[in-house]
Please model this.
Amino acid sequence: MRRYDAGYRAMKEIVGRGEIGAPLLFHSAHRNPAVPPSVTSDMVVVDTCVHDIDIARWLLDTEVAAAQVLKPRRSSRAAEHLQDPMVLVLEMSNGVLVDVEASINCAYGYDIRGEILGETGTVELAETSSVIVKREGQYGGRVPSDWRERFLRAYDVEFQDWVNAVTAGTSTGPSSWDGYAATVVCDAGVKALDGGRVEVSMRQQPELYQAIPSGQTTGID
Model:
């Protein structure tokens, strides 16, 4: 679904046009105000970081080669069994490094961030508040309360794209290969929770998916 978000699409266009040079680093953050006590560290990888994994593959147009999990000081708001926050570090096949910050009890709102550092510039997601209010010597804007507020429009665009494709008898959007790749990387990320660098082992991509033009994908998120 994030592939249909206007912000991420603008980022991909800028990277694709070479406006910031070759990508070097991608910083991604996925913050939730709170989660139920039943959420586990494994779930942070497979339910939260999976979105950042997919969008990293799409934005950088390459696969993930290895994963590692860094564990900073735990939040006092997290359940005892939960590592929160955590940082998932992805080594991409083209040498780009991706760090995914997952903080799921941040209290202040649902905050999605992303910045790509290139050789000659950067591109990052803008704040989602439509207005900035200035009063009494301060300024501020609204932080989304949950994923629906932040990505509702992207879901609408995704569903309409699917309807259009079915009507036309074509296939667009994230493919089964994209779903497989994200799942394999998540498996590596879960293993990395125990420590160390875990290489991502993927089967050879079938010719069916190799034939899909770059930028077209057939979603997940």
Observations:
- The domain at 2-210 is CATH 3.30.360.10 (Dihydrodipicolinate Reductase; domain 2).
- The chain has one domain: 2-210.
- Residues 213-221 have pLDDT under 50 and may be disordered.
